[in-house]
Each structure stands twice: as structure tokens, then as C-alpha cells.
Amino acid sequence: MRVALAQTDCRLGEVETNLREADHMVKEAAAQDAQLVVFPELSLHGYALGSLADDRSIPGSDPRLAQLSEHGPDVLVGLHEDARLRRYNSAAYLSQGALVHTHRKLYLPNYLAWEERKHASPGQGLRAFETRWARMATLICNDAWQPVLPWLAAQDGAEILLVPTNSAAGLVPGSVDTQGYWRDLLLFIARMQQCFVVFVNRVGNEVGASFWGSSRILDPWGNVVAEAPEWEQSLTVVDIDIDAVRRRRREMPLLQESRLGLVAREVSRLIEEGADS
């Protein structure tokens, strides 16, 4: 399978312009025989939604989204989704002119410099989904920092985890080494869930935030098989072997010992004892 990492900048709130740029990038990937193009989190809208004077969200059924996948490759694109009553930080997976799956970000950071809960509601479910190439699941940025979510996706059969991200450097000075955290986190996810991890981070500057890029793909052993440059827009195309997931999971069957009943009982106990449900 040939995957393209579309490490893009975007213009805050300028959806039409960002759609044109995404369409151009998909065409470029198609010319290199890519079968999937993955864009960063909120790639059609930008991250600092609170700086916009009005609501620019669009529905997942917007035909302009489906058109992105009419050039050949499947496409994962990030958007501020208009779901009538609520808005979501979403990633839409599109194939052959149709919407296949939408993931709505589950864990919205709302501390320090982040105010995502002001502009989006949390999603309510995580599902792996079938594509033409492999079974996949999407985790948007902070979703991947919740240890249970990559495990649940793998238990649902995901062979590829798509991780669109808006990660900035130095947004809160001295708080977190985001680049180091992501490096270690992605390694851990790939090794423990024994799957490909496709991490696509944006670049550019937006309302005081500098996005560092360095998008990458890790294989089921945790090896980095491709990495985009830091700080600059790029398209990185790489071939991956989906059968490697099945080989790795056979030779070291970590995921078979799931004991879902045990997990369900202990989670139910914690909820009954007053934990957050």
C-alpha cells in the first residue's frame, strides 16, 4: 500500500482556499500512485477557531469533501464539522467520491493554552472501519495520548492507526516537550498495538502557535519507515506492507490476551465507585 503524508499549512477559517490546496495535494499524490492521502487535524479550518468572528464549520456531507477522493487515492481530511446542534473536531475518510467514516475527536484538551471544549463537543464512539486497503481507525491528536484508545482500536481489528495532529512547539513555555513526547508515544503505540501508525502533523504559524511537522509512519515493530521534514510543507509518499501487521501479531500475540470481560468488570466497578463515566 502506498501512503502519502500531506504535511500542510492552512489559512485560518479560509475553507475554500484550504480545499483548493488539499485538492492540489491529492492530485500530486495521485501522480505518484498514492492510494491514501492523510492530512493533519482541522486541515480545512485551522486550529485557533476562537479567533474567527463567525462559525465556518461545514457538514460531513458537503460534496466538496467527497470530491477530494475522486482523483484516485482515498483521503483523510480534518474539519470543523457542523452536525446541526453541535460542532465537532472531525476527520473524514473518503473513498471514490463517498464518505466512508467520520471520527469525532473524543478527548478535547481544555487547559493551559488549549480551549477546544469551547468550540467543539466530544465524540461519543471509536470504531475501526474497513477500507479498500486495510482495516483502519482514526485517533485525532490528543486521542492518541489516552492509553486505552489505541488498544481499543487494535482490539477492533485496526491494522493502521491514522493520527492527524495539530502539535505546536513552545505554545506553553517549559510545560511539555511535545516533540519528545510524540516520538516516545508513537513508538509505544506501534510496538504495543503491533500496527502501522500514520502520524501527520501540520506546519505553519497561527495566532502565536508554531507547528513543527515531522510527520512520520512507524511499522509494527516501532521502526520509523518514513519521516517528513520539520517546519516546512511537504508531501511524503511511502510504501508499507500491510501483511507485516499480521506477521507481527502472529509471532508475538500480545493482542490476543485482551480479557475484555475482565476489563469490562473493572471499569464497571470504577464507575459504580464514583469514577467519571
Short summary of the structure?
This protein is an alpha/beta fold and 277 residues long.
Provide the β-strand percentage band.
25-35%
Mean pLDDT metric: 96
CATH architecture: 4-Layer Sandwich
CATH class: Alpha Beta
Q: Label the structural class.
A: alpha/beta
What is the fourth-level CATH superfamily? Carbon-nitrogen hydrolase
Structural shape: globular
Rg, Cα atoms, Å = 18 Å
Low-confidence stretches: none
Helix content: 10-25%
Protein name: Amidohydrolase
GO molecular function: N-carbamoylputrescine amidase activity
Domain CN hydrolase: 1-242
Keywords: Hydrolase
Task: Explain what the structure shows.
Helices cover 25% and strands 28% of the residues. Strands 5-4-3-2-1-15 form a 6-stranded mixed sheet. With 277 residues, the protein is α/β, with parallel strands linked by helices. The N and C termini lie far apart (39 Å). The protein has 6 helices and 15 strands. The chain has a single domain (2-272), classed as Carbon-nitrogen hydrolase (Nitrilase/N-carbamoyl-D-aminoacid amidohydrolase, 4-Layer Sandwich), CATH 3.60.110.10.
Topology:
Elements (H helix, E strand, L loop, with lengths): L1 E6 L7 H17 L4 E3 L24 H5 L6 E10 L2 E10 L2 E7 L24 E2 L4 E4 L9 H8 L4 E6 L2 E2 L8 H16 L2 E6 L1 E4 L2 E4 L3 E3 L5 E4 L6 E6 L3 H9 L8 H13 L5
Keywords: Hydrolase
InterPro entries: Aliph_Amidase/BUP, C-N_Hydrolase, C-N_Hydrolase_sf
GO molecular function, one term: N-carbamoylputrescine amidase activity
